[in-house]
Specification:
Length: 308
């Protein structure tokens, strides 16, 4: 007898202890902690296996827009709405660096562990590059006037997307130069690399997903994905990715066909009540975590469902 099944997601648990909308989320395998932050200016930590909020929290002086783990999860980068950012030592749980650097919100970041480089993108169109060994500034440049909301690493280059629809690349052999690579018609909110297609998947303000061929920098396809802006795109594995939107929905997609496999929403899946702003995948635990304007943290678990 042949057993048929499909992989689906269901709500495993939900946390609601923040006092404002949530914009940032990341997970440390090393410390087994989920980090969340948003408008209440507090980074909270969660032990998902123990199903509890831990006592370790960090208070900031501005809304938290971006979280990034650095140096083998030794440090936590916290990017703020006022343009400043903090570096927290996760072992001593003390601040080691504070940078009142950018003039506008820190919307995005990228860490390259093999090169010890941190890229920070801000709302005024500036990009700064830092050495994470000593946290010295390597380069700062004004890329454009558009908000830098998405930064991705693809091989030996870094790809940057902004609110003017522009896509820039930086060759890691020379981080002092950024070149315009391509452009789409709408502000870019999120990006992820699809290795099987050697393409960049872009979520935009117009609620579309666009696939950009990285060999030629040309748009392959653009599809209506949500009803409102696509705030987040996350690769789940080689054949699936997830998107989240202001329309309150998390969607699971087939990477090859670009077909929606599942819509995680309220009330059917007991999901978010308002805009879903960010996500992080935790493959080791078969989890996807989403955060949103409803102050809620939704932990989605993938499992095999038998098909009769």
């Amino acid at each position: 007898m042949i057993n048929y099944f499909r992989k689906v997601y269901r709500l495993q648990k939900k946390y609601k202890k923040h006092n404002g909308p949530l914009y940032a989320v990341t997970y440390s395998e090393k410390h087994q902690l989920l980090f969340t932050g948003g408008a209440d200016k507090i980074v909270a930590t969660w032990d998902l296996k123990k199903d509890e909020n831990t006592p370790f929290s960090i208070k900031t002086d501005s809304a938290i827009l971006n979280l990034q783990l650095l140096n083998d999860d030794t440090y936590l980068f916290i990017g703020l709405f006022n343009g400043n950012f903090h570096i927290i030592d996760l072992v001593s749980r003390q601040e080691v660096k504070y940078f009142p650097y950018h003039k506008s919100g820190v919307f995005s970041s990228l860490y390259l562990d093999e090169k010890n480089l941190l890229f920070v993108g801000a709302g005024d169109g500036t990009l700064s590059v830092w050495n994470t060994n000593d946290f010295e500034l390597i380069k700062n440049y004004k890329i454009s006037n558009g908000k830098i909301r998405a930064i991705q690493s693809i091989g030996e280059r870094v790809v940057i997307g902004n609110s003017e629809g522009q896509i820039f690349t930086i060759d890691l052999k020379d981080v002092s130069k950024a070149a315009l690579f391509s452009k789409i018609d709408h502000p870019i909110y999120s990006m992820v690399y699809l290795p099987l297609k050697n393409s960049l998947l872009i979520g935009d303000k117009n609620a579309h997903l666009t696939i950009l061929n990285l060999n030629f920098g040309v748009q392959v396809v653009s599809i209506a994905a949500h009803n409102w802006p696509v705030y987040g795109v996350v690769r789940l594995n080689d054949v699936e990715f997830a998107t989240c939107s202001r329309d309150k929905i998390v969607k699971i997609w087939d990477s090859n066909s670009l077909e929606v496999k599942q819509r995680l929403c309220f009330p059917m899946h007991k999901g978010h009540l308002n805009s879903v702003n960010n996500m992080v995948a935790i493959p080791s635990q078969n989890l996807l975590v989403s955060v949103g304007d409803d102050k809620q943290i939704c932990v989605w678990e993938s499992f095999r469902e038998d098909i009769l």
